[in-house]
From TrEMBL:
This is GlcNAc-PI de-N-acetylase. It comes from Kibdelosporangium persicum. SUPFAM superfamilies: LmbE-like. The keyword ATP-binding does not apply. Pfam families: PIG-L.
Amino acid sequence: MHRTIRRLLVVAAHGDDETLGAGGTLAKLADDGVRISLCVLCDDDGSRSETGQGVTNRVPAIEAAAKILGIERLAVHEYGDNRLDTVGQLELNRVFEREVREFEPDTVFAPSLSDLSLDHQLVSRAARVAGRAGRGPVREIRCFEVRSATDSGEAAGLPVFRPNCWQPLAESHLERKLEALRAYGDELQQWPSPRSERGVRALAEYRGSQVSTAYAEAFELLRVVL
Ligand SMILES: [Zn+2]
């Protein structure tokens, strides 16, 4: 029997990681009455602009997506996109340790160490430190997959994403995930991009078919204390 999630902390480097990785699951859990807090470290998309001109503040989009998914508590930090390595692991650990102290989650969702993005790897490590056994209320840690970050890691020699946990989704949960992605505007690209609506739907169908259900999101379950 699987334990019940009551308080979930989702940590992400960039706004949209949480939606791409676990948006359908977040919509479902919110419907089930789970209290969800989202902590995003970067508030802009600065690395896309070489001059720093035209940098978009992502906070309104993150807020809109969070509302669609049923996330009730949101913290967006002001670290620069693709610069978390200059912030350092220790400070990132402290950010999440503070989140765990304040929100007291029993479960944490984080990016995977399989992701090509260094930001994602740093966030994944910090989440493991903040949620380590015996140091707080966290009883379960899962990693989600983010299309184009998780599927690019293997060719760069990173460990392969190995899901061992599937959350079946209703059509309505997948629709909420797509609606939240639309809130991010340009982040949603044209097919055949993995970040297109069809690409997101295709992954949900593939993960679902692995466990004989119509749609699912898959996770790496790192630790569960029953
Ligand atoms: Zn990201």
